[in-house]
Input
Amino acid sequence: MSKYPMTWDLDAIYPGGSDSAAFAKELAGMEAGIAELQGVLADSAVDVKERVKKMTALSQSILLSLRQSESFIECLTAQNVRDLAAIGLGDRVKNISAKFFAELTRFDNVLREIDDAAWKELLQDGALGELAFNLSERRELAKLKLAPELEALVGDLAIDGYHGWGDLYNLIVSGAKFRVEQDGEEKLLSAGQMANRLSDSDRSVREAAFAEWERVWASVADLSADALNRIAGFRLKLYEKRGWSSVLQEPLQINRMSEATLNAMWSAIEDGKKALVLYLERKARLLGVEKLDWHDVDAPIGSATRTVSYDEGAAFITEQFRAFDPAMADFAEMAFKDGWIEAEDRAGKRPGGFCTSFPKSGQTRIFMTYSGTASNISTLAHELGHAYHQHVMNDLPGFSQEYAMNVAETASTFAEMIVSDRAMQAAKDEEEKLGLLEDKIQRSVAFFMNIHARLLFETRFYERRKQGLVTVSELNELMEAAQREAFKDTLGAAHPHFWASKLHFYLTDVPFYNFPYTFGYLFSAGLYARAQQEGPSFASKYVALLRDTGRMTVEQLAEKHLGVNLEEQTFWREAVSLTEEDVRLFLEMTENN
Output
Protein backbone atom coordinates (compact mmCIF):
# COMPACT_ATOMS: atom_id res chain seq x y z
CA MET A 1 0.00 0.00 0.00
CA SER A 2 1.28 3.46 -0.90
CA LYS A 3 2.54 5.64 1.92
CA TYR A 4 1.40 8.77 0.12
CA PRO A 5 -2.01 9.34 -1.50
CA MET A 6 -1.89 9.43 -5.30
CA THR A 7 -5.12 11.41 -5.61
CA TRP A 8 -5.44 14.96 -4.40
CA ASP A 9 -7.68 16.34 -1.69
CA LEU A 10 -9.87 19.09 -3.13
CA ASP A 11 -12.36 18.95 -0.26
CA ALA A 12 -9.80 20.72 1.92
CA ILE A 13 -10.31 23.72 -0.37
CA TYR A 14 -14.04 23.48 -1.11
CA PRO A 15 -15.84 20.30 0.06
CA GLY A 16 -18.29 18.72 -2.35
CA GLY A 17 -16.58 19.11 -5.72
CA SER A 18 -18.82 20.58 -8.41
CA ASP A 19 -21.72 20.71 -5.91
CA SER A 20 -19.73 22.54 -3.22
CA ALA A 21 -21.81 25.03 -1.23
CA ALA A 22 -18.59 26.67 0.00
CA PHE A 23 -17.50 27.27 -3.59
CA ALA A 24 -20.90 28.73 -4.46
CA LYS A 25 -20.43 31.11 -1.52
CA GLU A 26 -16.97 32.07 -2.86
CA LEU A 27 -18.45 32.97 -6.24
CA ALA A 28 -21.23 35.02 -4.63
CA GLY A 29 -18.63 36.82 -2.53
CA MET A 30 -16.67 37.78 -5.64
CA GLU A 31 -19.79 39.14 -7.30
CA ALA A 32 -20.53 41.24 -4.21
CA GLY A 33 -16.94 42.49 -4.14
CA ILE A 34 -17.12 43.53 -7.79
CA ALA A 35 -20.34 45.45 -7.09
CA GLU A 36 -18.60 47.24 -4.22
CA LEU A 37 -15.62 48.04 -6.48
CA GLN A 38 -18.01 49.50 -9.06
CA GLY A 39 -19.40 51.78 -6.38
CA VAL A 40 -15.98 53.06 -5.36
CA LEU A 41 -15.02 53.64 -8.99
CA ALA A 42 -18.19 55.67 -9.52
CA ASP A 43 -17.60 57.88 -6.47
CA SER A 44 -15.20 60.50 -7.83
CA ALA A 45 -15.95 62.87 -4.94
CA VAL A 46 -13.74 60.90 -2.54
CA ASP A 47 -10.12 62.05 -1.95
CA VAL A 48 -7.99 60.47 -4.71
CA LYS A 49 -5.53 58.81 -2.32
CA GLU A 50 -8.26 57.22 -0.21
CA ARG A 51 -10.10 56.19 -3.34
CA VAL A 52 -7.03 54.52 -4.83
CA LYS A 53 -6.27 52.79 -1.51
CA LYS A 54 -9.79 51.38 -1.28
CA MET A 55 -9.82 50.31 -4.94
CA THR A 56 -6.44 48.65 -4.51
CA ALA A 57 -7.50 46.72 -1.41
CA LEU A 58 -10.75 45.58 -3.01
CA SER A 59 -9.09 44.62 -6.29
CA GLN A 60 -6.47 42.50 -4.57
CA SER A 61 -9.08 40.73 -2.45
CA ILE A 62 -11.17 39.87 -5.51
CA LEU A 63 -8.06 38.86 -7.46
CA LEU A 64 -7.01 36.30 -4.84
CA SER A 65 -10.53 34.91 -4.76
CA LEU A 66 -10.62 34.71 -8.56
CA ARG A 67 -7.27 32.91 -8.75
CA GLN A 68 -8.52 30.44 -6.15
CA SER A 69 -11.76 29.85 -8.06
CA GLU A 70 -10.01 29.41 -11.41
CA SER A 71 -7.68 26.86 -9.82
CA PHE A 72 -10.58 24.88 -8.37
CA ILE A 73 -12.28 24.67 -11.77
CA GLU A 74 -8.98 23.70 -13.42
CA CYS A 75 -8.53 20.86 -10.93
CA LEU A 76 -12.10 19.58 -11.30
CA THR A 77 -11.96 19.49 -15.11
CA ALA A 78 -8.44 18.04 -15.20
CA GLN A 79 -9.26 15.11 -12.93
CA ASN A 80 -12.38 14.34 -14.97
CA VAL A 81 -12.65 15.89 -18.42
CA ARG A 82 -16.33 14.89 -18.51
CA ASP A 83 -17.37 16.75 -15.35
CA LEU A 84 -20.12 18.78 -17.03
CA ALA A 85 -21.10 20.55 -13.81
CA ALA A 86 -17.53 21.81 -13.41
CA ILE A 87 -17.49 22.96 -17.02
CA GLY A 88 -20.68 24.94 -16.32
CA LEU A 89 -19.15 26.49 -13.20
CA GLY A 90 -16.11 27.36 -15.28
CA ASP A 91 -18.32 29.40 -17.57
CA ARG A 92 -19.67 31.31 -14.57
CA VAL A 93 -16.13 31.99 -13.33
CA LYS A 94 -15.20 33.31 -16.79
CA ASN A 95 -18.16 35.71 -16.63
CA ILE A 96 -17.14 36.89 -13.17
CA SER A 97 -13.56 37.29 -14.40
CA ALA A 98 -14.70 39.38 -17.37
CA LYS A 99 -16.71 41.68 -15.08
CA PHE A 100 -13.79 42.02 -12.68
CA PHE A 101 -11.23 42.79 -15.36
CA ALA A 102 -13.63 45.34 -16.87
CA GLU A 103 -13.61 47.12 -13.51
CA LEU A 104 -9.84 46.70 -13.27
CA THR A 105 -9.56 48.45 -16.63
CA ARG A 106 -11.55 51.36 -15.21
CA PHE A 107 -9.33 51.28 -12.11
CA ASP A 108 -6.25 51.43 -14.35
CA ASN A 109 -7.75 54.39 -16.17
CA VAL A 110 -8.13 56.22 -12.84
CA LEU A 111 -4.41 55.64 -12.26
CA ARG A 112 -3.61 56.84 -15.79
CA GLU A 113 -5.46 60.13 -15.25
CA ILE A 114 -3.43 61.06 -12.14
CA ASP A 115 -0.70 63.54 -13.11
CA ASP A 116 2.93 62.61 -12.54
CA ALA A 117 3.51 64.90 -9.54
CA ALA A 118 0.41 63.64 -7.73
CA TRP A 119 1.37 60.07 -8.62
CA LYS A 120 4.79 60.38 -6.98
CA GLU A 121 3.18 61.82 -3.88
CA LEU A 122 0.55 59.11 -3.78
CA LEU A 123 3.21 56.39 -3.80
CA GLN A 124 4.72 57.84 -0.64
CA ASP A 125 1.85 56.24 1.24
CA GLY A 126 3.02 53.05 2.97
CA ALA A 127 0.38 50.63 1.67
CA LEU A 128 0.54 52.00 -1.87
CA GLY A 129 4.32 52.42 -1.82
CA GLU A 130 4.68 48.69 -1.19
CA LEU A 131 2.89 48.20 -4.52
CA ALA A 132 4.71 50.96 -6.43
CA PHE A 133 5.98 48.62 -9.16
CA ASN A 134 2.64 46.89 -9.71
CA LEU A 135 0.54 50.05 -9.67
CA SER A 136 2.95 51.93 -11.94
CA GLU A 137 2.97 48.97 -14.32
CA ARG A 138 -0.83 49.04 -14.49
CA ARG A 139 -0.83 52.80 -15.05
CA GLU A 140 1.66 52.62 -17.95
CA LEU A 141 -0.07 49.67 -19.63
CA ALA A 142 -3.39 51.52 -19.49
CA LYS A 143 -1.84 54.13 -21.77
CA LEU A 144 -1.34 51.46 -24.45
CA LYS A 145 -4.87 50.08 -24.42
CA LEU A 146 -8.28 51.11 -25.75
CA ALA A 147 -10.69 53.27 -23.79
CA PRO A 148 -11.99 51.48 -20.65
CA GLU A 149 -15.47 50.90 -22.02
CA LEU A 150 -14.05 49.30 -25.17
CA GLU A 151 -11.67 47.07 -23.20
CA ALA A 152 -14.64 46.05 -21.04
CA LEU A 153 -16.61 45.19 -24.18
CA VAL A 154 -13.68 43.11 -25.43
CA GLY A 155 -13.67 41.16 -22.16
CA ASP A 156 -17.41 40.49 -22.34
CA LEU A 157 -17.31 39.35 -25.96
CA ALA A 158 -14.26 37.16 -25.26
CA ILE A 159 -16.22 34.83 -22.97
CA ASP A 160 -18.21 33.13 -25.70
CA GLY A 161 -15.79 34.09 -28.46
CA TYR A 162 -12.09 34.03 -27.66
CA HIS A 163 -12.24 31.84 -24.53
CA GLY A 164 -15.04 29.75 -26.02
CA TRP A 165 -12.68 28.49 -28.73
CA GLY A 166 -10.21 27.40 -26.06
CA ASP A 167 -13.03 25.54 -24.31
CA LEU A 168 -13.94 23.86 -27.59
CA TYR A 169 -10.41 22.52 -27.88
CA ASN A 170 -10.67 21.05 -24.36
CA LEU A 171 -13.86 19.32 -25.49
CA ILE A 172 -12.03 17.93 -28.53
CA VAL A 173 -9.29 16.52 -26.28
CA SER A 174 -11.82 15.00 -23.88
CA GLY A 175 -13.25 12.96 -26.77
CA ALA A 176 -9.89 11.78 -28.09
CA LYS A 177 -9.44 8.04 -27.57
CA PHE A 178 -6.31 6.07 -28.51
CA ARG A 179 -6.41 2.36 -29.37
CA VAL A 180 -3.63 0.14 -28.07
CA GLU A 181 -3.21 -3.61 -27.83
CA GLN A 182 -2.37 -4.79 -24.35
CA ASP A 183 -2.26 -8.42 -23.18
CA GLY A 184 -3.96 -9.51 -26.39
CA GLU A 185 -6.85 -7.10 -25.94
CA GLU A 186 -7.61 -3.74 -27.49
CA LYS A 187 -7.86 -0.94 -24.94
CA LEU A 188 -8.81 2.70 -25.23
CA LEU A 189 -6.50 5.24 -23.55
CA SER A 190 -6.90 8.94 -22.84
CA ALA A 191 -4.44 11.44 -24.26
CA GLY A 192 -2.68 11.63 -20.88
CA GLN A 193 -2.18 7.87 -20.71
CA MET A 194 -1.13 7.62 -24.34
CA ALA A 195 1.48 10.37 -24.02
CA ASN A 196 3.50 8.18 -21.62
CA ARG A 197 3.77 5.44 -24.27
CA LEU A 198 5.49 7.83 -26.69
CA SER A 199 8.69 7.61 -24.61
CA ASP A 200 8.60 3.86 -23.96
CA SER A 201 11.98 2.11 -23.98
CA ASP A 202 10.74 -0.35 -26.63
CA ARG A 203 10.99 1.25 -30.08
CA SER A 204 8.20 -0.93 -31.50
CA VAL A 205 5.88 0.33 -28.74
CA ARG A 206 6.90 3.93 -29.49
CA GLU A 207 6.38 3.49 -33.23
CA ALA A 208 2.93 2.02 -32.77
CA ALA A 209 1.99 4.66 -30.19
CA PHE A 210 3.21 7.50 -32.39
CA ALA A 211 1.32 6.18 -35.43
CA GLU A 212 -1.86 6.05 -33.35
CA TRP A 213 -1.09 9.46 -31.83
CA GLU A 214 -0.81 11.04 -35.29
CA ARG A 215 -3.91 9.19 -36.53
CA VAL A 216 -6.13 10.48 -33.74
CA TRP A 217 -4.92 14.09 -33.94
CA ALA A 218 -5.32 14.00 -37.72
CA SER A 219 -8.91 12.86 -37.22
CA VAL A 220 -9.71 15.99 -35.18
CA ALA A 221 -7.45 18.35 -37.14
CA ASP A 222 -10.27 20.20 -38.90
CA LEU A 223 -11.95 21.11 -35.62
CA SER A 224 -8.62 21.95 -33.93
CA ALA A 225 -7.56 24.14 -36.87
CA ASP A 226 -10.82 26.08 -36.70
CA ALA A 227 -10.34 26.71 -32.97
CA LEU A 228 -6.71 27.77 -33.47
CA ASN A 229 -7.59 30.11 -36.35
CA ARG A 230 -10.36 31.81 -34.37
CA ILE A 231 -8.17 32.30 -31.29
CA ALA A 232 -5.45 33.88 -33.41
CA GLY A 233 -7.94 35.97 -35.38
CA PHE A 234 -9.37 37.43 -32.17
CA ARG A 235 -5.92 38.35 -30.90
CA LEU A 236 -4.81 39.91 -34.16
CA LYS A 237 -7.94 42.05 -34.46
CA LEU A 238 -7.58 43.26 -30.87
CA TYR A 239 -3.90 44.09 -31.43
CA GLU A 240 -4.82 46.00 -34.56
CA LYS A 241 -7.41 48.10 -32.70
CA ARG A 242 -4.90 48.85 -29.93
CA GLY A 243 -2.30 49.88 -32.49
CA TRP A 244 0.09 47.06 -31.62
CA SER A 245 2.13 45.94 -34.62
CA SER A 246 4.02 42.98 -33.12
CA VAL A 247 2.38 39.75 -31.95
CA LEU A 248 5.18 39.49 -29.38
CA GLN A 249 4.29 42.79 -27.68
CA GLU A 250 1.71 41.22 -25.36
CA PRO A 251 3.65 38.07 -24.36
CA LEU A 252 6.80 40.13 -23.72
CA GLN A 253 4.84 42.59 -21.60
CA ILE A 254 3.15 39.77 -19.66
CA ASN A 255 6.57 38.22 -19.00
CA ARG A 256 8.07 41.59 -18.03
CA MET A 257 11.00 41.16 -20.37
CA SER A 258 12.43 43.12 -23.29
CA GLU A 259 12.78 41.96 -26.86
CA ALA A 260 16.52 42.55 -26.50
CA THR A 261 16.61 39.93 -23.72
CA LEU A 262 14.65 37.48 -25.87
CA ASN A 263 17.01 37.96 -28.82
CA ALA A 264 20.14 37.67 -26.67
CA MET A 265 18.86 34.40 -25.22
CA TRP A 266 18.06 32.78 -28.59
CA SER A 267 21.36 33.92 -30.11
CA ALA A 268 23.25 32.16 -27.33
CA ILE A 269 21.11 29.05 -27.81
CA GLU A 270 21.79 28.92 -31.55
CA ASP A 271 25.50 28.63 -30.76
CA GLY A 272 24.80 25.93 -28.18
CA LYS A 273 22.74 23.81 -30.57
CA LYS A 274 25.94 22.58 -32.21
CA ALA A 275 26.57 20.37 -29.18
CA LEU A 276 23.01 19.07 -29.20
CA VAL A 277 23.33 18.08 -32.86
CA LEU A 278 26.30 15.89 -31.87
CA TYR A 279 24.23 14.39 -29.07
CA LEU A 280 21.25 13.62 -31.35
CA GLU A 281 23.53 12.06 -33.97
CA ARG A 282 25.16 9.86 -31.31
CA LYS A 283 21.78 8.89 -29.91
CA ALA A 284 20.61 7.84 -33.40
CA ARG A 285 23.70 5.63 -33.65
CA LEU A 286 22.97 4.10 -30.24
CA LEU A 287 19.39 3.33 -31.28
CA GLY A 288 20.57 1.86 -34.58
CA VAL A 289 18.82 4.36 -36.84
CA GLU A 290 20.12 6.86 -39.38
CA LYS A 291 18.11 9.75 -37.95
CA LEU A 292 15.89 10.03 -34.91
CA ASP A 293 12.17 10.04 -35.57
CA TRP A 294 10.11 12.36 -33.39
CA HIS A 295 9.22 9.54 -30.98
CA ASP A 296 12.92 8.64 -30.60
CA VAL A 297 14.01 12.02 -29.30
CA ASP A 298 12.68 11.35 -25.79
CA ALA A 299 13.44 7.63 -25.82
CA PRO A 300 15.34 6.62 -22.66
CA ILE A 301 18.83 5.13 -22.65
CA GLY A 302 20.38 3.11 -19.85
CA SER A 303 19.01 1.69 -16.63
CA ALA A 304 17.21 4.92 -15.80
CA THR A 305 14.35 3.23 -17.64
CA ARG A 306 13.54 1.20 -14.51
CA THR A 307 10.14 1.84 -12.97
CA VAL A 308 10.21 3.78 -9.71
CA SER A 309 7.23 3.57 -7.35
CA TYR A 310 5.47 6.77 -6.36
CA ASP A 311 6.65 6.46 -2.76
CA GLU A 312 10.25 5.95 -3.92
CA GLY A 313 10.02 8.95 -6.23
CA ALA A 314 8.56 11.12 -3.47
CA ALA A 315 11.25 10.08 -0.99
CA PHE A 316 14.02 10.70 -3.50
CA ILE A 317 12.78 14.18 -4.40
CA THR A 318 12.38 15.16 -0.76
CA GLU A 319 15.87 13.90 0.06
CA GLN A 320 17.45 15.93 -2.75
CA PHE A 321 15.53 19.07 -1.79
CA ARG A 322 16.78 18.67 1.79
CA ALA A 323 20.40 18.76 0.66
CA PHE A 324 19.70 22.21 -0.85
CA ASP A 325 17.30 23.65 1.72
CA PRO A 326 15.52 21.84 4.60
CA ALA A 327 12.58 24.26 4.32
CA MET A 328 12.02 23.24 0.71
CA ALA A 329 12.12 19.55 1.70
CA ASP A 330 9.67 20.09 4.57
CA PHE A 331 7.31 21.79 2.14
CA ALA A 332 7.52 18.88 -0.35
CA GLU A 333 6.91 16.35 2.44
CA MET A 334 3.78 18.24 3.46
CA ALA A 335 2.52 18.33 -0.14
CA PHE A 336 2.95 14.55 -0.47
CA LYS A 337 1.38 13.72 2.91
CA ASP A 338 -1.55 16.12 2.76
CA GLY A 339 -2.80 15.06 -0.66
CA TRP A 340 -1.82 18.07 -2.72
CA ILE A 341 -0.87 15.89 -5.70
CA GLU A 342 -3.05 14.08 -8.27
CA ALA A 343 -0.75 11.43 -9.75
CA GLU A 344 -2.93 8.34 -10.34
CA ASP A 345 -2.67 6.70 -13.76
CA ARG A 346 -6.31 6.30 -14.82
CA ALA A 347 -8.65 7.04 -17.68
CA GLY A 348 -10.65 10.26 -17.86
CA LYS A 349 -7.85 12.65 -16.91
CA ARG A 350 -6.57 15.37 -19.20
CA PRO A 351 -3.00 15.03 -20.54
CA GLY A 352 0.04 16.87 -19.22
CA GLY A 353 0.96 18.25 -15.84
CA PHE A 354 0.52 21.52 -13.97
CA CYS A 355 0.68 23.22 -10.60
CA THR A 356 -2.07 25.64 -9.64
CA SER A 357 -2.35 27.96 -6.65
CA PHE A 358 -5.05 28.53 -4.04
CA PRO A 359 -3.71 31.80 -2.58
CA LYS A 360 -6.58 32.38 -0.15
CA SER A 361 -6.03 28.94 1.35
CA GLY A 362 -2.24 29.20 1.21
CA GLN A 363 -2.10 25.90 -0.69
CA THR A 364 -1.34 24.56 -4.16
CA ARG A 365 -2.32 21.45 -6.12
CA ILE A 366 -0.22 19.46 -8.59
CA PHE A 367 -1.62 17.42 -11.47
CA MET A 368 0.16 14.72 -13.48
CA THR A 369 -0.11 11.07 -14.50
CA TYR A 370 2.64 9.09 -12.75
CA SER A 371 3.82 5.82 -14.30
CA GLY A 372 7.25 5.55 -12.65
CA THR A 373 9.62 6.84 -15.34
CA ALA A 374 12.61 9.11 -14.79
CA SER A 375 10.70 11.73 -16.75
CA ASN A 376 7.78 11.43 -14.33
CA ILE A 377 10.10 12.10 -11.39
CA SER A 378 11.47 15.15 -13.18
CA THR A 379 7.94 16.39 -13.83
CA LEU A 380 7.01 15.89 -10.18
CA ALA A 381 10.08 17.84 -9.01
CA HIS A 382 9.30 20.52 -11.61
CA GLU A 383 5.74 21.02 -10.36
CA LEU A 384 6.88 21.03 -6.72
CA GLY A 385 9.24 23.85 -7.68
CA HIS A 386 6.21 25.83 -8.84
CA ALA A 387 4.40 25.03 -5.62
CA TYR A 388 7.33 26.16 -3.44
CA HIS A 389 7.53 29.42 -5.42
CA GLN A 390 3.93 30.23 -4.49
CA HIS A 391 4.47 29.03 -0.93
CA VAL A 392 7.18 31.63 -0.19
CA MET A 393 4.97 34.40 -1.65
CA ASN A 394 1.73 33.64 0.19
CA ASP A 395 2.15 36.55 2.62
CA LEU A 396 2.68 39.18 -0.10
CA PRO A 397 -0.06 41.54 -1.38
CA GLY A 398 -2.22 40.10 -4.15
CA PHE A 399 -0.77 42.25 -6.93
CA SER A 400 2.78 41.29 -5.91
CA GLN A 401 1.93 37.60 -6.20
CA GLU A 402 1.18 37.99 -9.93
CA TYR A 403 4.48 36.67 -11.25
CA ALA A 404 4.91 35.82 -14.93
CA MET A 405 5.35 32.47 -16.61
CA ASN A 406 9.06 32.89 -17.37
CA VAL A 407 10.05 33.34 -13.73
CA ALA A 408 7.53 30.67 -12.70
CA GLU A 409 9.41 28.29 -14.99
CA THR A 410 12.66 29.40 -13.36
CA ALA A 411 11.52 28.08 -9.96
CA SER A 412 10.21 24.81 -11.37
CA THR A 413 13.27 24.10 -13.48
CA PHE A 414 15.60 24.97 -10.59
CA ALA A 415 13.87 22.30 -8.49
CA GLU A 416 14.16 19.85 -11.38
CA MET A 417 17.90 20.56 -11.66
CA ILE A 418 18.45 19.87 -7.97
CA VAL A 419 16.91 16.43 -8.35
CA SER A 420 18.50 15.45 -11.67
CA ASP A 421 21.99 16.60 -10.68
CA ARG A 422 21.97 14.80 -7.35
CA ALA A 423 20.47 11.69 -8.96
CA MET A 424 23.49 11.55 -11.26
CA GLN A 425 25.86 11.94 -8.33
CA ALA A 426 24.11 9.11 -6.51
CA ALA A 427 24.04 6.74 -9.51
CA LYS A 428 25.04 3.19 -8.56
CA ASP A 429 26.90 2.44 -11.81
CA GLU A 430 27.93 3.92 -15.15
CA GLU A 431 24.85 2.64 -16.95
CA GLU A 432 22.48 4.33 -14.52
CA LYS A 433 24.55 7.51 -14.64
CA LEU A 434 24.38 7.49 -18.42
CA GLY A 435 20.61 7.11 -18.36
CA LEU A 436 20.22 10.00 -15.94
CA LEU A 437 22.67 12.18 -17.88
CA GLU A 438 20.76 11.49 -21.05
CA ASP A 439 17.47 12.38 -19.37
CA LYS A 440 19.05 15.67 -18.31
CA ILE A 441 20.25 16.44 -21.85
CA GLN A 442 16.79 15.63 -23.18
CA ARG A 443 15.48 18.62 -21.25
CA SER A 444 17.99 20.85 -23.04
CA VAL A 445 16.73 19.42 -26.33
CA ALA A 446 13.19 20.23 -25.24
CA PHE A 447 13.95 23.83 -24.26
CA PHE A 448 16.45 24.68 -27.01
CA MET A 449 14.83 22.81 -29.90
CA ASN A 450 11.26 21.67 -29.20
CA ILE A 451 10.25 24.99 -27.63
CA HIS A 452 12.08 26.84 -30.41
CA ALA A 453 10.03 24.90 -32.97
CA ARG A 454 6.86 26.01 -31.19
CA LEU A 455 7.96 29.65 -31.21
CA LEU A 456 8.92 29.50 -34.91
CA PHE A 457 5.61 27.83 -35.76
CA GLU A 458 3.47 30.21 -33.77
CA THR A 459 5.23 33.35 -35.03
CA ARG A 460 4.90 32.25 -38.66
CA PHE A 461 1.34 31.04 -38.14
CA TYR A 462 0.29 34.48 -36.90
CA GLU A 463 1.89 36.14 -39.90
CA ARG A 464 0.06 33.74 -42.23
CA ARG A 465 -3.19 34.22 -40.28
CA LYS A 466 -3.16 37.94 -41.07
CA GLN A 467 -3.92 36.96 -44.67
CA GLY A 468 -6.87 34.71 -43.74
CA LEU A 469 -7.69 31.25 -42.37
CA VAL A 470 -4.81 28.77 -42.34
CA THR A 471 -5.69 25.26 -43.53
CA VAL A 472 -4.79 21.97 -41.89
CA SER A 473 -2.26 21.15 -44.60
CA GLU A 474 -0.66 24.59 -44.22
CA LEU A 475 -0.50 24.16 -40.43
CA ASN A 476 1.17 20.77 -40.90
CA GLU A 477 3.69 22.30 -43.31
CA LEU A 478 4.46 25.18 -40.92
CA MET A 479 4.86 22.77 -38.01
CA GLU A 480 7.14 20.32 -39.79
CA ALA A 481 9.29 23.11 -41.25
CA ALA A 482 9.67 24.66 -37.79
CA GLN A 483 10.65 21.33 -36.26
CA ARG A 484 13.28 20.59 -38.90
CA GLU A 485 14.76 24.08 -38.56
CA ALA A 486 14.78 24.06 -34.76
CA PHE A 487 16.29 20.55 -34.65
CA LYS A 488 18.95 21.48 -37.23
CA ASP A 489 17.78 18.80 -39.68
CA THR A 490 18.54 15.94 -37.28
CA LEU A 491 15.02 14.51 -37.45
CA GLY A 492 13.82 11.60 -39.54
CA ALA A 493 10.01 11.54 -39.24
CA ALA A 494 8.66 14.79 -37.77
CA HIS A 495 5.35 15.38 -35.94
CA PRO A 496 3.22 17.46 -38.35
CA HIS A 497 0.08 17.36 -36.16
CA PHE A 498 1.94 18.58 -33.07
CA TRP A 499 -0.01 21.86 -33.34
CA ALA A 500 -3.25 19.88 -32.88
CA SER A 501 -1.97 17.83 -29.93
CA LYS A 502 -0.49 20.64 -27.84
CA LEU A 503 -2.83 22.39 -25.41
CA HIS A 504 -0.47 25.36 -25.09
CA PHE A 505 -1.41 26.72 -28.52
CA TYR A 506 -5.05 26.96 -27.42
CA LEU A 507 -4.63 28.72 -24.08
CA THR A 508 -6.41 32.07 -24.05
CA ASP A 509 -5.03 33.51 -20.83
CA VAL A 510 -1.38 33.56 -21.93
CA PRO A 511 -0.32 34.00 -25.58
CA PHE A 512 2.91 32.42 -26.86
CA TYR A 513 3.14 29.74 -24.19
CA ASN A 514 6.62 28.72 -25.34
CA PHE A 515 9.69 30.98 -24.99
CA PRO A 516 9.10 31.61 -21.26
CA TYR A 517 9.92 27.93 -20.70
CA THR A 518 13.34 28.37 -22.28
CA PHE A 519 13.95 31.57 -20.31
CA GLY A 520 13.12 29.74 -17.09
CA TYR A 521 15.39 26.83 -17.98
CA LEU A 522 18.43 28.98 -18.72
CA PHE A 523 17.82 31.51 -15.94
CA SER A 524 17.55 28.66 -13.45
CA ALA A 525 20.79 27.19 -14.83
CA GLY A 526 22.52 30.45 -13.93
CA LEU A 527 20.96 30.34 -10.47
CA TYR A 528 21.97 26.72 -9.99
CA ALA A 529 25.57 27.53 -10.87
CA ARG A 530 25.52 30.21 -8.14
CA ALA A 531 24.00 27.74 -5.68
CA GLN A 532 26.83 25.27 -6.32
CA GLN A 533 29.43 28.00 -5.83
CA GLU A 534 27.94 29.47 -2.65
CA GLY A 535 26.61 26.37 -0.91
CA PRO A 536 23.90 26.40 1.81
CA SER A 537 23.93 30.20 2.15
CA PHE A 538 22.35 30.51 -1.30
CA ALA A 539 18.99 29.10 -0.16
CA SER A 540 17.95 32.35 1.55
CA LYS A 541 19.07 34.37 -1.49
CA TYR A 542 17.00 32.10 -3.70
CA VAL A 543 13.87 32.70 -1.63
CA ALA A 544 14.53 36.46 -1.73
CA LEU A 545 14.71 36.32 -5.52
CA LEU A 546 11.47 34.31 -5.75
CA ARG A 547 9.68 36.85 -3.57
CA ASP A 548 10.67 39.64 -5.97
CA THR A 549 9.41 37.87 -9.10
CA GLY A 550 6.01 39.57 -8.93
CA ARG A 551 7.34 43.10 -8.47
CA MET A 552 10.27 43.49 -10.88
CA THR A 553 11.08 43.08 -14.55
CA VAL A 554 13.34 40.13 -15.26
CA GLU A 555 16.14 42.55 -16.14
CA GLN A 556 15.79 44.25 -12.73
CA LEU A 557 15.58 40.87 -11.01
CA ALA A 558 18.81 39.63 -12.61
CA GLU A 559 20.64 42.88 -11.90
CA LYS A 560 19.60 42.94 -8.22
CA HIS A 561 20.11 39.28 -7.33
CA LEU A 562 22.80 38.14 -9.79
CA GLY A 563 24.48 41.35 -10.93
CA VAL A 564 24.07 40.47 -14.62
CA ASN A 565 22.64 42.16 -17.72
CA LEU A 566 20.16 39.89 -19.48
CA GLU A 567 20.14 41.99 -22.64
CA GLU A 568 23.71 40.89 -23.33
CA GLN A 569 24.66 37.36 -24.36
CA THR A 570 27.32 36.80 -21.65
CA PHE A 571 24.96 35.37 -19.01
CA TRP A 572 23.07 33.26 -21.53
CA ARG A 573 26.26 31.80 -23.02
CA GLU A 574 27.45 30.77 -19.57
CA ALA A 575 24.11 29.05 -18.95
CA VAL A 576 24.19 27.27 -22.32
CA SER A 577 27.73 26.05 -21.62
CA LEU A 578 26.38 23.80 -18.85
CA THR A 579 24.51 21.83 -21.52
CA GLU A 580 27.62 21.69 -23.69
CA GLU A 581 29.50 20.14 -20.76
CA ASP A 582 26.74 17.53 -20.30
CA VAL A 583 26.96 16.61 -23.99
CA ARG A 584 30.76 16.34 -23.81
CA LEU A 585 30.42 13.85 -20.94
CA PHE A 586 27.71 11.91 -22.81
CA LEU A 587 29.90 11.59 -25.90
CA GLU A 588 32.80 10.35 -23.77
CA MET A 589 30.64 7.75 -22.02
CA THR A 590 29.18 6.41 -25.28
CA GLU A 591 32.30 6.54 -27.46
CA ASN A 592 32.74 2.76 -27.52
CA ASN A 593 29.05 1.78 -27.48
